[in-house]
Amino acid sequence: MSRQFDQSLKDVKTTLLEMGGKLEVAIDKAVKSLAKLDADMAKSVVDSDKEVDELETRIDEQVSTLIATQQPVAKDLRKLIAALKIASDMERMADLAGNIAETTLQLVENDQKLFKELVDIPQMATITQKMVHDGINSYIDGNVALAKSMAETDDQVDQLYETIVKEMMETMIHQQKLTEVSLRLCFVARYLERIADHATNIAESIVYIETGRREDLN
């Protein structure tokens, strides 16, 4: 491929890095807004979703132009197709971060308080942020081993999700006045679990780029 193709592919990677950075921040702020019941922070997460959408559109345009003008094949073509899928997964993850922020806004609006300090949910958020980071770095470096290791990390998120749901179910059974908050925390855990699943999808895309084979890492 030409030097122009290499530079354009580098531009695609730069845009993906920017998108991943904004996504990590959105996840972090969404969960912090929940822990602090900070409506202003939650609104900033919801507002930032538009920026992620714009970056996804930019990647669509960059990749479409490259395919139309350079007609890449084999691994180069897989890199571009994977970039589109990774961007789509990150856009969906940003939506889920927005859902967490909206949960904060609903709790504040209904004057609901948290009945305990959040521990497992922030831990889930930290792990999912790392998965996003590792996913993007795997794409940039073509690191299959790092991508495959994300499947084990996803298992940690699944275990935390099950722990949270079990705890919230017991709370709802024994303290019905806490049902609304417990239920919303279950949803938040579900949003984070889905973010981790999308991050694992990115890992699958890396494996596809580098090997030409599709593997189910979920």
Automatic annotation (TrEMBL):
The keyword Oxidoreductase does not apply. Keywords: Cytoplasm, Phosphate transport, Transport. It comes from the Bacteria. InterPro entries: PhoU, PhoU-like_sf, PhoU_dom. Plays a role in the regulation of phosphate uptake. Homodimer. This is Phosphate-specific transport system accessory protein PhoU. It comes from Desmospora profundinema. The lineage of its organism: Bacteria, Bacillati, Bacillota, Bacilli, Bacillales.
